[in-house]
Amino acid sequence: MRKFASRYGRLGTETAFAVGADAAAWAAKDNHVYPFHLGDMNIITPDYILDAANKAARDGKTGYAPGPGILPLREALAEDIGMARGLNYTAENISVQPGGKPVIGKFLATLMEEGAEALYPNPGYPIYESQIEYLGGKALPYGYVTTDTGFAINREEVEAQITDKTTILIYNNYQNPIGAESTEEEMQWVADLAIKHDLWVLADEAYFEVRYSGLSKSIASLPGMAERTVILYTFSKKFAMTGWRLGCAAGPVDVIEAISKFNTNQESCSNHFVQAAGVACLNGPTEPQNAILSELKLRRDALTEALLNIDGVKVSRPETTFYLFPDVTDIFKRMGYTDSAKFRLDALYETGISFCSREHFGRPLPGEDRIFIRFAYSGINVDQIQEGLAALKNFWE
């Protein structure tokens, strides 16, 4: 029997893709599927970005680029990220990445010793746990409590886990999968905690610009936080560029230099003509981005209304991200389920609705007694949302 390296056994995956495989298999049998499972987008990248990439490729931007990224993009990112967050960034604070996801592993590889403890949100993006454990750290999950407006960090759970070995805190405000947004008071509490215990913070801000009202705020902008925070930034959601794989790490110069060293070791550089398109994104018109947000807001409202029209569903309407995280405990119990996988698959086979369960976003924590599922509405149009949810209502009621 082939033997893999022991560390490979610690590597997890993004389990929403496994749900996608179930949906694809069902669709392959000539069944209609309503894809709520994956946070991909069915919105085409705006034309001015496509034109910029094509022009750059035709102009010969098809070879290697500098490992940290091309200077015009790093400068544009420094200005864009800094202005939106009240931070004084320069190109030296930016390391361009092939997407936002690589920032997670490179941040941890740079700052987390083997055996150190890292706090991460659960439910949360499963790659946090995967990379912490793969790189030899001890993953400490922290959960959320329900509130009148959605979810809040379980502060007692966070504080109870911190030891002298805890060095990392991953903080995903505007959160996937639950759509949670910290109050200013909660964000300040997180910052105070990081300063008190001398923690490095990874601020995953992939959805910073995906918001329908109000203004986003970064924990890096709070006093004492810029020097201990690395921001994960991505073009994927903001510009409907999920498949382009372009993002960056933004933070203290010495940490960014170290992250760029991983660039050289792992992928050499991010795609040159895609980086050129990134410059066009940041210097281009705002109307296409506003149109993307307007469409997502229509979908959010249609999905929220349809879910609230189903007896037994409880769900909040977040002002950020493109996810809803409804509580379906009453339906789960009313229909006699004991297994969330069967609950999910029965919905797929009976209605074509494909969604993720809470278990796809981390191992359930002790004391969890409610059943949640996640709907992503970035890849499905309003008419399909309404049609699919009508079928789901008939099945669940």
What does this structure look like?
This protein is α/β, with parallel strands linked by helices and 397 residues long. It folds into two domains: 148 residues, Aspartate Aminotransferase, domain 1 (Alpha-Beta Complex), CATH 3.90.1150; 235 residues, Aspartate Aminotransferase, domain 2 (3-Layer(aba) Sandwich), CATH 3.40.640. Helices cover 40% and strands 14% of the residues. The protein contains 13 helices and 14 strands. A hairpin with a 2-residue loop joins β5 and β6. It is globular, with a radius of gyration of 21 Å. The chain starts with 15 loop residues before the first helix and ends with a helix.
Number of helices: 13
**CATH class wording of the largest domain:** Alpha Beta
Helix and strand content put the structural class at alpha/beta
Q: Quaternary arrangement of the chains shown?
A: single chain
Arithmetic mean pLDDT: 95
Question: CATH superfamily assignment of the largest domain?
Answer: Type I PLP-dependent aspartate aminotransferase-like (Major domain)
- So, CATH architecture of the largest domain? 3-Layer(aba) Sandwich
**CATH topology-level name of the largest domain:** Aspartate Aminotransferase, domain 2
- The geometry reads as globular
Beta-strand segment tally = 14
**How far apart, in Å, are the first and last alpha carbons?**
50 Å
Instruction: Please tell me the total number of domains.
Output: 2
Largest sheet: 7 strands, mixed
Q: pLDDT under 50 segments (min length 5)?
A: none
Report the sheet-strand fraction. Answer: 5-15%
What is the radius of gyration?
21 Å
Major β-sheet strand ordering: 2-10-9-8-7-3-4
Roughly how much helix do the residues carry, as a percent range?
40-55%
Order of helices and strands: HEHHEHEHEEEHEHEEEHHHEHHEEEH
